[in-house]
Structures are given as C-alpha cells and as structure tokens.
Amino acid sequence: MSASSVSGIDLPDNIGNAMSYKDEKRKPDLYESEDVVKLDFQNINGTTIEDVQRLLVMHNQFEDFRKLMMEYECAISEVRTKLDVLNAEMSLRTDRNPFESIKVRLKSPISIYEKMERRGYPFTVKSIRDNLHDIAGIRVVCSFIDDIYKLRDYLLGQDDVTLVEEKDYIANPKPNGYRSLHIIIEIPVFMVEGKVLRRVEVQFRTIAMDFWASLEHKLKYKKDIENAETIIEELAISADMVNQLDRRMQQIREKIDGNSLKEENV
Ligand code: GTP
Ligand code: MG
Fold it and tell me: Which ligand is nearest to the CA of 168?
C-alpha cells in the first residue's frame, strides 16, 4: 500500500489527500482552502485523526472508506465537467459566462466523523453513504441571479441527474440573511465493476452573496466576539443590500442586453 504522511502519520494516498485541508479546529470553509495545508494536529472534541483512522481499521472499513472517497471525488469531477460544458455553451449564446468561478471540496474524514457523531449515526461506510449528502461539494459563483436558475434547470434537465433535495435560500433567505440555492443531486459514476450512484451538493450563489457568506462564516466560527449582536444586525442589513444590488445589476444587464438586441436589428 503506497503511503503519504500527514502529521507524521502514514496514510494511504487517497485518505492523505482527503485529510490535507486546513486546520479543522477552526472549522474552515473548505471551499475557501486554496492551498493544501498539512495539519499539525487535528482534534475535534478530543477526537483525533488517528482515532478516526483506528476506528475504520478496527471495523475493517478502511479500504471501503478510501473507495467511497474516491467515488465522491469522481462524482465531483463528473458534475464539474457538466457545469463547464454548460458554461461553454451558454457563454457562446449570451457572450458572457453564466458563472464566474467554481470551487469544489471533499468533506474531510474528521468532519465526516464529527457529523456522524453529532447526528447519532454509526460510523460505518454504509451509514456514511446512506446518511451524508454533502461529502462531495461544489460551489458555483455566478454574476447574476437568473443565471443561477438557468444553470440549475439545465443541470437537472440532464438524463443522468436526479434531484434529491433542494433548498432555495434565495427565494427564502435564512433569518441571518444567508442566500444561496442548494441542490443535492445524484449521478451515476461508472467504476470498473459497474455503476454506483453518488450524491453531490451543489451550491449556487452570486458573487455578492459569496462575499457576504464568507464574512458571515468568519463570525460563526469565531468565539468570544465583542458586539456580536451589532455585527449580526449589520450583517442582516448588508444581506438586504446585497440582494438589492444583485437585482439592480440584473436589471441593468437586461437593459444593456435589450439595447444591444435593438442595435443588431438596425
Ligand atoms: P449541514 O450540511 O450540516 O450544514 O446542515 P444542512 O444540510 O441543514 O445545511 P444547509 O443545506 O442549510 O447548508 C449547507 C452548507 O451551506 C453549509 O455547510 C455552508 O457551506 C452553507 N451555509 C448554510 N447556511 C449558511 C449560513 O448561514 N452562513 C454561511 N456562511 N454559510 C451557510
Ligand atoms: Mg447539508
């Protein structure tokens, strides 16, 4: 078994990659992890990465876990390609990119462990597969709100994509002001021994919503913050402003589009 090393622990390649994210203690937004940072020590509520690894080995689940993670990595690539294809075609038609950026992330083993514990599920590969829908994550950042819904519709219109769950926090924002469209989809991944269906969480948001969410995320995981109440209020007000800005930008774009259509007809 080939091995990589994280914090001096010898790990098989795949699991090593999956674990090589930023310090989980501070609960980073893994989509924001640009660089692969090696962990000094992972510890959530006293559970270390070694504990998680030991648990998997103890239950003879280590290889199955690696395989499952690999399948989710492939599922991410599949959905990413689908979105890239849509982006290419839509930009040919409209002369602009429907999305500005895509970020992907695979949930780290320690986060998987922590979520399973929190929800009271047994830490087995079958249970992870059945109960967690966001191991594979893709965040699509668009310029305009209407592009979010177009991308969603085109993606869900594809034969091999099944919608499992949808949360429209754009139409129904969270009380804190959070806006984004979340869908969980299931897609086939073709392995040597046949097809497996895997779930991927896709989050769509505008650039402005993304900007807001990254700042709000900082508040969520920072302890002992001064004037938290005021900050929460300011964030809620800013979320409304972000929404107004998004809608205005779209109206302006529609006017510009309308004008260029008129020009074409001259
Ligand atoms: P978890 O997946 O356990 O978080 O619960 P859930 O399935 O009910 O979550 P939901 O679909 O509402 O959100 C999943 C993801 O969306 C989170 O992991 C974040 O990336 C993002 N998200 C949701 N709500 C917020 C929020 O209020 N602020 C920010 N910054 N991000 C959020
Ligand atoms: Mg979720």
Answer: 1
